[in-house]
């Protein structure tokens, strides 16, 4: 992909976390993400399309934009989030374009999962 194709697209997402191992266990368990460690204070994650990072170098739970993850089967995604230790903040609800739910991860970040189904 050329730099022109990347212009104005989300390229990377970074989370300040309290425990990188716990974040890897949560996101790996809930969504199957993979990880590359870059020392004790930084880990890159990959979801198969987008990459980002977990770092312990900043304040945890400082807010930020709502990150939304797509799922073909939203009920299965919600079950995986709960099994991995996430807290459902807003149960599955309809919205224009499909359905979604919001959850908080172990560090208190709120994210959402949506599906066209």
Summarize the structure in words.
It is a single chain. By secondary structure, the protein is of the alpha/beta class. It has a single domain (3-115), classed as Roll (2,3-Dihydroxybiphenyl 1,2-Dioxygenase, domain 1). It has 3 helices and 8 strands. It has helices spanning 3-6, 20-31, 74-83; strands at 12-16, 34-37, 42-46, 51-55, 67-70, 87-95, 98-104, 110-115. The strands form 2 sheets. The protein has a 4-stranded mixed sheet with strand order 1-4-3-2, covered by helices on one side. A hairpin with a 5-residue loop joins strand 7 (98-104) and strand 8 (110-115). Helix 2 runs antiparallel to helix 3. The radius of gyration is 14 Å and the shape is globular. The N and C termini lie far apart (30 Å). The model has no long low-confidence stretch (mean pLDDT 90).
Describe what is shown at a glance.
By secondary structure, the protein is α/β, with parallel strands linked by helices. The chain has helices at 3-6, 20-31, 74-83; strands at residues 12-16, 34-37, 42-46, 51-55, 67-70, 87-95, 98-104, 110-115. It is built from three helices and eight strands.
Overall mean confidence score, pLDDT: 90
Give the CATH level 1 class.
Answer: Alpha Beta
Strand order of the largest sheet: 1-4-3-2
Based on DSSP secondary structure assignment, what is the total number of beta strands?
A: 8
What proportion of the residues form beta strands (DSSP E)?
A: 35-45%
- Largest sheet report: 4 strands, mixed
Poorly predicted spans: none
What share of residues is helical? Answer: 10-25%
Determine the number of helices (DSSP H or I, runs of at least 4 residues).
3
Annotated CATH topology: 2,3-Dihydroxybiphenyl 1,2-Dioxygenase, domain 1
User: Alpha-carbon distance between the termini?
Assistant: 30 Å
Helix and strand content put the structural class at: alpha/beta
The domain count comes to 1
Under the CATH scheme, which architecture would be assigned?
Answer: Roll
Q: Which geometry do the CA atoms define?
A: globular
Q: CATH H level: which superfamily?
A: 2,3-Dihydroxybiphenyl 1,2-Dioxygenase, domain 1
What is the radius of gyration? 14 Å
H-E string: HEHEEEEHEEE
């Amino acid at each position: 992909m050329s730099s022109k194709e990347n212009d104005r697209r989300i390229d990377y997402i970074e989370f300040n976390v309290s425990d990188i191992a716990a974040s890897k266990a949560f996101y790996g368990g809930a969504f199957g993400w993979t990880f590359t460690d870059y020392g004790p204070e930084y880990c890159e994650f990959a979801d198969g399309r987008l990459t980002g990072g977990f770092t312990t170098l900043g304040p945890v739970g400082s807010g930020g934009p709502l990150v939304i993850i797509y799922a073909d089967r939203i009920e299965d995604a919600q079950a995986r989030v709960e099994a991995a230790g996430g807290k459902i903040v807003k149960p599955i609800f309809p919205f224009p374009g499909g359905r979604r739910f919001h959850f908080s991860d172990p560090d208190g970040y709120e994210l959402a999962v949506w599906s066209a189904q």
